[in-house]
Fold each of these.
Amino acid sequence: MKKLLLQINRKLMVMITMVIVVIIGVAGTTAPVHPVIYKNLKILPQDISREALHDIMEVQFGDALGVHCDYCHAKEPGADHPDFASDANPRKDIARDMMRMVLKMNTDNFQVAKPMIGDSLMVVTCYTCHHGAAIPDTKGKNPEVHDFGPPGKPGPVPGAPAAPPAPPQKN
Ligand code: HEC
Ligand code: HEC
C-alpha cells in the first residue's frame, strides 16, 4: 500500500513538473520582453537600447552643450515634464542637423567607416566644438582675429579693429 502511494506521488510530481514547464514555455512565447519603442527617431537606429539612447542624450549631448533635457525637448502641453517625441522645440531639429554634420565629418574627413552617434570610434563629436557651451566659443584668446560676429553677418564686428593686411605670399 505504501509503495503504491509513493508511486502515485512520484507520477503526480512528474505531471506537475511537466505542467509547470508548459506554463513557463507558453508565458515565454506569448509575453516577450517588450523592446523600447521610440516614436520619432530620424537619425538614431530604431532598435537602440534605452541605455544607449540615455547615454547619448545625457552624457554626450547634455555634457557637450552644458544643458539639460528641456533645452532641446519641449514640455508636454499642460504638463511639467518633456514630451521627448515632440519636435515642437526647434533646437531638436538643429541638433539633428548637427548629428548629420558630425556623421558626415567622421566619414568624409576622418575615414570612420560606420560612424554612430555615441560610438567611441567617432573622431569628431559634439564636444569637439561645443566644449560644454550651447553656442561654441569662437573668440579664443585673440578676439580681434577670431570673432566674426553673429552668424550670417560677416565681420568685422562694429568697433573691432580692422583685420591686418594679409602678409605677402611667398613662393
Ligand atoms: C542637444 C539637444 C538634446 C538634448 C540636450 C537632449 N536631447 Fe533627447 N533628443 C534629441 C534629438 C535630436 C532626438 C531625436 C534623435 C533622432 O531623430 O534620431 C532626441 C530624442 C530623444 C528621445 C526619443 C523620443 C522618441 O520617442 O522618439 C528620448 C527618450 C530623449 N531624447 C530623451 C532625452 C533626455 C532624457 C534628455 C536629458 C538627459 C535629452 N533627451 C536631452 C536632442 C536632445
Ligand atoms: C564643427 C563644430 C560643431 C560640432 C561638431 C557640433 N556643433 Fe552644434 N553648433 C556649432 C556652432 C558654431 C553653433 C552656433 C551656431 C549659431 O550660433 O548659429 C552650434 C549650435 C548648436 C545648437 C543650437 C544652440 C542654440 O542655443 O542656438 C545645438 C542644439 C547644437 N549645436 C547641437 C549640437 C550637437 C547635438 C552636436 C553633436 C551631434 C553638435 N552640435 C556638434 C558647431 C558645432
Amino acid sequence: MEGSLNMAIYAIWNNKGGVGKSYLTFQVACEYARQNPSKKVLVVDMCPQANSSSMLLGGMVNGENQLNTIHSQPRRVTISGYLEDRIASPYQSPGTGSTYLTQVSNHNHSVPSNLFLVVGDEQLETQASRVANATRPRSARCVAYCAFVGRRLDSGHLDALES
Ligand SMILES: Nc1ncnc2c1ncn2[C@@H]1O[C@H](COP(=O)(O)OP(=O)(O)OP(=O)(O)O)[C@@H](O)[C@H]1O
Ligand SMILES: [Mg+2]
C-alpha cells in the first residue's frame, strides 16, 4: 500500500479448486513484504475457507487456533465484519476499513511486520445474498417480490419489502 493513488492490486482467483490459490497468496505476500520492508502489504482474504489467513497466522494447528480466536471475539475483525458495515452503507464508505486490519506479525513472528491481513471468514457464504440485496435497486427487488407472492404490487407490499 503506497496510498490510494499509487497502489498495485493483484487478485488471485481461479474457478477450479485445489490449484494453489491460497498457497500462492501466502507465499507471494510474504516474499514481497520481505523484499520490500519499506512498503506495506495487505492481503484481503475473500475465501470463506480462510486458508491463506490460516497459513499467514502460523499454519497447521497454530494457524487454525489463531483463526478461531479471532473469529470468536465479540467484534468480528474479519472481512465479514467489514461487509456488515457495507451492507448497512452500500453506497457510501463507512470509513471503517482500517479497523479491520490484522498485523500478522502479532500472531506469527516469522512473518515481516509490514504484512497486514483482512482475515477470511466462513460467514462470507451466508452474506453473499445479503450483499446482493443491499445493492440491488429497489425496483428490481419489487419485481422479485411480486413474482414471489404472485400478485399485484401495492404500497403495503413496498412497506413490507423495505422493512
Ligand atoms: N507450488 C506448490 N507445490 C506443492 N504443493 C502445492 C503448491 N501449491 C499448492 N500446493 C498444495 O496443493 C494443495 C492445494 O493448494 P491450495 O489450498 O493453495 O489450493 P486452492 O486453489 O486455494 O484450493 P481451494 O479451491 O480449495 O481454495 C495444498 O495442499 C497445497 O499445500
Ligand atoms: Mg484456497
